[in-house]
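Curious: why this fold?
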Amino acid sequence: MQALPNESVNKTILRSSIWMLALRWALRLIGIANTFVLARLLVPDDFGLVAMGMLMVGFVEIFGQTGQILALIRHPNPTREHYDTVWTVSILVGLAITLLLWALSPLAPSYFHDDRAVLVVQVLSFRALISGFENVGVVAFRKDLQFSKEFKYQVAQRVINLVVTLVVAMWLRNYWALVVGILGGRFLSVAMSFFVHPYRPRLSFAKTREIWSFSFWMLLVHVAQFIQDKTDEFVVGNLKDAHSLGGYNVAADLSTAPTVEMVLPTTRALFPIFSRMSDDLDALRRAFLDVQASVAIIVCATSVGVYLVAEDFVMVTLGAKWMEIIPLVKILAFSGGFYAFANGAITLISASGHGRLSASLAITRTVTAVPVLIAAAILGSMETIAWARTVLSLLFVPGVFFALSRVVPVGPMDILGRLWRPVIASAIMAGVVTLLHPAHPLIATMPVFRLSFDALVGAVSFAAAMVALWRLSGRPEGPEKAMVGKISGWLARKPVAAAVAESGTGPVVLVVSTFSSAEEGAPIRRGLYRFLRNRARRSIDRTMWMVFRRWTFDFSTYEDRRNTNRGDAAIRIASIQLLRRTLGADIRVREFGWNGIGPDFVRMANKEAALVVFAGGGYFFIDEHGDLPERIRRHAELVSGIRVPVVGLGLGVNVLLGKSPDHDNYWLSPDSETLLQRYLGHFAACSARDPGTAARLSAACADGSRVVLVPDPAVLMTPAGRGRHRPDDDGAVWVGVNLSFHGKVSARRLRQAFPHVAAALGKLKDDLPCRFLYFVHSDSERVLPALLRNAGIDVTVIDTSPTEMLDWYATLDIHLCMMLHSAIFAVNQCVPTINIAYDAKNFAFGEFVGALEVIAPEDVTAERLTLSLLRLWEGRAARRATLERRKEELARDMERFLDQVRSLPGVAAPAE
C-alpha cells in the first residue's frame, strides 16, 4: 500500500467523508422512511420482540467479527490468498454462529420472558450464515478509497430491503415483517456483492495465521463494544417487557441518529486513510485534529439540537403513540454526542496498528458500564438507565484521548482548542431557540411547522455564533475558515475545468503547469461586506501613500482575479509551442494546473497519452526548514503510477531571500531529499532552468544520471507578432518597468524598494528624455502605475497576454524589474535589464544568462539604481549583442533536450 501524500490528506478525507456521509444518510433516510411507515403499521410490542431477538443474535454474531476485513484493509499488499482466506473464514464463522444460535434459542424466553423469542432467534440466526458468503472483493471499495462504488452498492441493497419489508408489513401487520426484512436484506446484499464486483473468491486457509494476528485484538474490541453499547437494552429487556424495550430501542436510535449518522461515515472513511498515514505521526496528528474540529461542530449542533426539538421530533417522525419516549430522546441525545466525539480517536488508535490498546479501552469501558447500568435498572426508571448511559459516555471521553496521546502527540489543549467555540455556539443556539419557541403561537398546534421553525432558527443562530467566535479568535485555520472560503467560492463563480483539450489528430500530450488556461483569470466575487472592506482598505492605503508617503502593501487587497501571473501563463504557452515544434503541430495538448491532477489524471495518461510534461516555473519551492511543498508528495505518488514517459521541462527551484540570506543556498531536509530522489526516479528526462536548480536536482538523481540545463521555456516563447513599432522621430529612451507584487515576501521587498525605484526613475528622466512603460505581470500590480504617477513618473500601462506583451518588450531600450519573468521576457527580446531580487532564482537566472544585472535587496538605493540604469543605457548595444548570442546558445540547448524527449519510447516524431 502506497502512502497517502500529505497535501492530499484533507482533500482525501473530505472527499471520502462526503461519500460515506452521503451513504450513511441515504441509508438513514431509507431507514427513516422504513421506520416512519412501520411505526404506523406496527406497535412498540412488535419492535420490542424483534429487538429481543436481535440482541441475542447480535451478541453471538459479535464473536464472528474477528476483524478480518480490517486486517485486509490494513495489509499493504494483499494477495489473492489473503482475500480467499478472509472469505473462507467468514463462511465458517457464519456457520458456527448459526448453529450456536439454534442451540441457545431455547434459553431466550428465560431471559426475555416471552416464548415468541425462540422462533424469532432461530430464524434470525441464518443472517450470520448468509453474510459469510458475501463477496470479499467489495472490500476493495474501502481499501482503495472507492467510496462512490461503496455508495451505489449499499444504497441499492437497502432500497430493495425497504421494498421487501414494507410489502411484507402491509401483508402480515406484525413483527414477522421486520424479521423477513432483516433476512431479505442480507440475502440480497450477498447476491448483489457478486454483481457489483468481478472478484470470485475460492476456499483457502493459506493466510489464516497472518490474518488472525491482527484480528484477535479486533475481536476483543468488537465484543466489548457490543456489550457496552447493548447492556442497557439487555437490562431493559430482562427487567421490563417488550413494550418498554421497543420504546427504549427506538428512542436510542432516534436521539443519536442525527449526530452519529453525521460522524460515523467520516470514521468509516478514516480507517483506510489513517492506515496509510500510520508511519507519519505529524501528518496523523494534523489530519486527526482537522477532522476532530469538524466533529466537534457536528456533535454540539446536533446533540443540543435534538434535545431542543425532541417533542416535535418524536411527534412528527413517529406519531402520538410514541410520546412516552420523549424524555429518553432528550437524555440519550447527549450520549450519542459524547460517543461520536470520542469515536475518531478510537478509529485512529485501531488504524495505526494499536489493536491491543483499542481492546484495553473497550474492555475497561465494558467492565465499568455493565454494573453501573444494572444498578441503574434495579434502582431507578428507564430515565435513570438513560442518564447512566449518558454519564458513562461522558466520563469515557477523557480516557480515550489520554490513550490517544500515547499513540499520537495530541494534548488536552489541542482538543479543547477545537471544542470551545462549538460548545459556546451551541449554548447560544439553545438560548435563541428557547427564547423564540413560544413566540409563534399561530403554529403552536402544527408540530411540523414548529419543528421546521425551531430547526431553522437553531441552524442560523449556531452558524452565526460559530462565524462570530471564529472571527473574534483571529480567524484561525479550521473548518470555519474552510467553509467560509468554500461558500465564498461558490457564490463567486462557477467551477472551472481542470483541463483544456487542444484540437489536433496526433498523439495526446498532457502538460502540467502552474495553472491551465481554463483556470486563468478566474474572478474573485466578493460579498457586500467583503467588497466594502476591500475598498476601504484600498482607500486607506492610497491616503497613506499620497499624504504620508507610507509605503505599505498587501497584495491580496488588490487581487480581483486568481491565476493572473503572466510569467506562469508564458511558461505554459511557450512549453506548448516548443512541444508542437518538436513533436508536430498536430499533437493534442491537454492542459492541467498543479492542483488539478489526481487519480483520473493517471488513468488518462495511461489510457490515452503518449507523453506527460511538467513544465517550468518555481515548481520546487524550498521553505525555511528545507522542506519541499506537500504538492510534490502528491505528484510523486501520481507519477509513480504513470506508465508513459514523464518529462520535466525547465523546472526551477525557488528559495525566498527573506528566509535564506544566501542566494546559493539550496539546502533540503533529509525527508525532502529522499522525496526528491524518489520523485526524480520516475522521470524519463528532466531539465532545469538555471544552474542552481540543475545542481540541486542532479545531486538527487540516482545512478549518476544528470539533469540537462536549458533556459526557462518563456525565454524562447514566440511573440504574437503584432508589430509594435516605435516612432522614428520619438527621440526618447524607452524604459520598461515592473515591480513584483504577487506574494507576502515580494510585497515586503516592494515596500522597501518602491521609494528608491520611484526616486531613481525620477532622476533618470531628469538626465534623459524617457518614456516609461509599466508591464503588469499580475493583476494586483495594477495599482502600482497610479502610485508611480503620484510620485511624478508618467507611465504607459501594458496589460495584455504574454505573447502580445513580448511585442511591447521589443520596443524597449532598457528595463528595470523585480518580477523574474519580466526579466525573462526582456531576455527573450534581448533587452538590457536590471533585476531587483527577492528570490534565489533571480540570481541563478542572472548568472545563467550572463548579461543580466541582478541587485540584492540590501543594495537597493536610489543612487545605486540611477547609476546602474545610466550605465545600462550607455552600454546597451554591447549588452544586446551578448544577449542575442546567449539566446542562440540557449535555443540550441533546448533543441538538444527536446530531441532527447522526441526519442523516448512511445513518443511519436513529427510527420515529415
